[in-house]
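User: quick one, fold this
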Amino acid sequence: MQELIEEFVNYISIERGLAKNTLLAYRRDLQKYLEYIEKGGTSHIQQVSRDRVTAYMYDQKQKGLSTTSICRSLAAIKMFHRFLVRERLAKEDPTNLVDTPKLWKRVPEVLSTGEIEAMIKASQGRKKQNIRDHAILELFYASGMRVSELVELKVENVNFDIGYVRCIGKGRKERIIPIGKRAQEAIKKYCEKTRNELVKSQITSVLFVSRLGKKVSRQSVWKIIKQYAKKANIKKTIKPHTLRHSFATHLLEGGADLRSVQEMLGHSDISTTQIYTHVDRERLKSVHKQFHPRA
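Assistant:
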């Protein structure tokens, strides 16, 4: 059954153009699923029943997996079985009548504009690392890009004349995101004073590079965010998407329309963007509770 996983992953990679990280997640999810199926005594994929799929979902819940993770796993399993039927490797799809668990809309943690300012200010300095980190934070907050998108950004993807970045997102979809003067100035300073020194004699078109001249990793950007959040004395829980969440929330609070924010974030479904309207409502509720005399 392992061979079937590889065939499926090759299919979604070529036919659907899914991102590398998505492919890795799908492969992991399917390997866990097939391990569970085989341990239960099922030796062939055609023997899998709807009850077996449901039992696996329940098993994942019992192990403490979040609803989001279970939903992602089920999405991979459904795609896998549909693929098998389409390729005539199986006669029936046992996931047809399996319902997706209801997603709990959790309001993501966001930073206030003051906390963002403090964090970006904490990254300022004359050292090469500071100049690069400052440019990363300015661009991250100005664009709302995913970490994976930011590290893949090329020098030619930044247009200083018009003031935008060309971002390649999930499924290799391209989008244009406007960026403000502060981000432009920070990136210009980094390119003019720091990037060439870091790159040295190496040839690379990647915008943000490490001290060894290699592409900055997602883990490094994550560490940079945590480092300056700590330096700015921010006590909130900081996650890789915190600046992205803050970008979207602050735009909506400022009066931006949902469709525009959806486009800038690169969400294919506007329901994904709507979580940030919940953030705004939660903020208003907290303000009301704090200041209304009869709250």
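User: anything notable?
Assistant: The chain has a mean pLDDT of 85.
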